[in-house]
Amino acid sequence: MAGKKAAAQRDAVAAIIDDWARERPELDTSPLEVLARLHRTFLRYQTGLTAAIERHGLAVAGFDVLTALRRAGKPYRLTAGQLADSGLISSAGVTLRIDRLEKDGLIVRERDADDRRVVYSRLTDAGLAKVDEVFAEHLDNERRMLAELSPAERRQLARLLSKLERSIVYAAEADAGDGSPE
Question: Three-state DSSP class for 109?
């Protein structure tokens, strides 16, 4: 029975499309086949990601800061602006995240030796150990999530998702009146 329930959940988008075909047959609902599935998949991914990271006493936002610092390489430090520019972290919450991670002993703030106005956030030894442990587990978790896809399917999906992201960015820029891709 569990298999049927899972299959029914997987086919929820198909049911939605069928409902719209019945109610509004003149509409092209084909975007739902991609974007509704992507949305549902993201929500499930986010739930699994959050649970795995919170088991380590971290919030996803704090984990993003730790991984950005780790990716920076030795001495594992960045300014708040660099953290915001790292791609996954919005500038609005950087200071709050840094405060929490500092309180937890995972990072320290350091002033630049040449320009005291510049403040870096740097991983502590405990922070380095924590991010290395949690990130390895995170990758294992993601591998489990992708287990039903072959390596070739993963590569193909990655290419298609990259193309989809560019398409969405282009559409947003066109809507804003710019009309040109990045």
Answer: strand
Cα(148)–Cα(20) distance, integer angstroms: 30
Distance CA 172, CA 101 (A): 34
Distance (Å) of CA 44 to CA 30, 49, 99, 169: 22, 9, 29, 23
Q: Is the peptide bond before 75 cis (omega within 30 degrees of 0)?
A: yes
Task: Give the span between the Cα atoms of 34 and 52, in whole angstroms.
Answer: 27
More confident residue, 12 or 2: 12
DSSP structural state of residue 76: -
Entry field: residues in the chain: 182
pLDDT tens for each residue of 39-85: 999 999 999 999 999 999 999 999 999 999 999 999 999 998 899 88
The encoded tokens of residue 154 equal: 């993963």
Residue 90 scores a pLDDT above 70:
no
Burial class (CB in 10 A: 0-12, 13-18, 19+), 116: exposed
